[in-house]
Design goal:
single chain; 143 residues; alpha+beta; two-stranded antiparallel sheet; 5 helices; 53% helix
């Protein structure tokens, strides 16, 4: 038996047998997720977590993030007003502005991490759907 076959109206996939179409899609989705995250997205998740407002500050009820706090000191360069996003500004759908380059970079790094994760999820969904449609038969195919 190969790694992918059809048996009596059900599917066989990587040692799992008697799978329905939904179960086959589930296992393909897990395989594609494992393959995508093999490349080390731990750094991306770390940047997202470091960008969360965990340090209490006076004057700001939400606090500041460890990343933004450290980058304010390392990149302490005054600039013109630069647009940034925070958790509260995203909810209000308005940019907030800073004049410190470190604060600007510290606020955008988690947003870039979120974009990378969203791209990974899109890639996983595309690859899993394509692989499933290659294996599935007739009405079991998606789209």
């Amino acid at each position: 038996m190969d790694t992918v076959e059809e048996l009596n109206g059900t599917y066989f996939y990587r040692g799992f047998y008697n799978l329905s179409a939904g179960e086959l899609l589930f296992w393909i989705f897990l395989d594609e997720t494992a393959e995508q995250f093999e490349t080390g997205d731990l750094l991306t998740v770390g940047l997202i977590l470091l960008g969360q407002p965990e340090i209490a500050t006076r004057g700001k009820p939400g606090g500041t993030s460890p990343l933004s706090s450290q980058l304010r000191h390392w990149l302490n360069i005054e600039t013109r007003r630069l647009p940034t996003l925070t958790n509260s500004s995203i909810r209000r759908m308005k940019f907030t502005y800073v004049t410190n380059l470190g604060a600007f970079v510290g606020r955008w790094i988690p947003i870039i991490g979120i974009d990378v994760i969203a791209a990974d999820v899109s890639t996983i969904a595309y690859k899993a759907t394509t692989k499933f449609n290659t294996i599935a038969r007739g009405n079991d195919k998606l789209w």
